[in-house]
Amino acid sequence: MTRRKSWDTYFMDIAYMVSTRSQCPRRHVGAVLVQGKKLLGTAYNGAPMGVPDCSEAGCMLVEEYEIKRVDGQEQVVAKQRCVRTIHAEQNLLLFTDRHDREGSIVYVTDQPCWTCANMLANSGIAEIVYHRSYPKDQDKVMALMNQVGIRFRRLENYEPPAGTDEAVTN
Ligand SMILES: [Zn+2]
Ligand SMILES: [Zn+2]
């Protein structure tokens, strides 16, 4: 007998399935909105409708500088990021109603970046559950979630459905 999936696993599996729709080769992110165990919306990172996506037009890369601490020393590291896509969390907010979101849970394959976290903080949701971590913005995102009282947790001991957990280029 196979054990019945927990709700966490069930909704995170859906988020991973949704993420496979993404056409950005650098990162496939999926997000779902859940209200009282009911699925109210799904979204992935992608270019706006009617606009060529990363698979057709290539990624739109910008270079950013990050401060990293290595052995107690601060180092400035240049990193490339694709800005062609609207992030999954932002698309999720664009395609759901504020009223539906009040008190809901967002399951997202990746820990939200600062901008998405800031928007989610103002979206009416009550909880965020993520799987893959994103250390870059972690400290400020966690501080924000504490301030606004949104539950924020990583899904531990979780295995994404086969073939959905893409290698991520940073
Ligand atoms: Zn891209
Ligand atoms: Zn984001």
TrEMBL record:
<keyword id="KW-0862">Zinc</keyword>
<dbReference type="InterPro" id="IPR016193">
    <property type="entry name" value="Cytidine_deaminase-like"/>
</dbReference>
<dbReference type="InterPro" id="IPR016473">
    <property type="entry name" value="dCMP_deaminase"/>
</dbReference>
<protein>
    <submittedName>
        <fullName>Deoxycytidylate deaminase</fullName>
    </submittedName>
</protein>
<dbReference type="InterPro" id="IPR035105">
    <property type="entry name" value="Deoxycytidylate_deaminase_dom"/>
</dbReference>
<dbReference type="Pfam" id="PF00383">
    <property type="entry name" value="dCMP_cyt_deam_1"/>
</dbReference>
<dbReference type="InterPro" id="IPR015517">
    <property type="entry name" value="dCMP_deaminase-rel"/>
</dbReference>
<dbReference type="InterPro" id="IPR002125">
    <property type="entry name" value="CMP_dCMP_dom"/>
</dbReference>
<keyword id="KW-0479">Metal-binding</keyword>
<comment type="similarity">
    <text>Belongs to the cytidine and deoxycytidylate deaminase family.</text>
</comment>
<keyword id="KW-0378">Hydrolase</keyword>
<feature type="domain" description="CMP/dCMP-type deaminase">
    <location>
        <begin position="6"/>
        <end position="155"/>
    </location>
</feature>
<dbReference type="InterPro" id="IPR016192">
    <property type="entry name" value="APOBEC/CMP_deaminase_Zn-bd"/>
</dbReference>
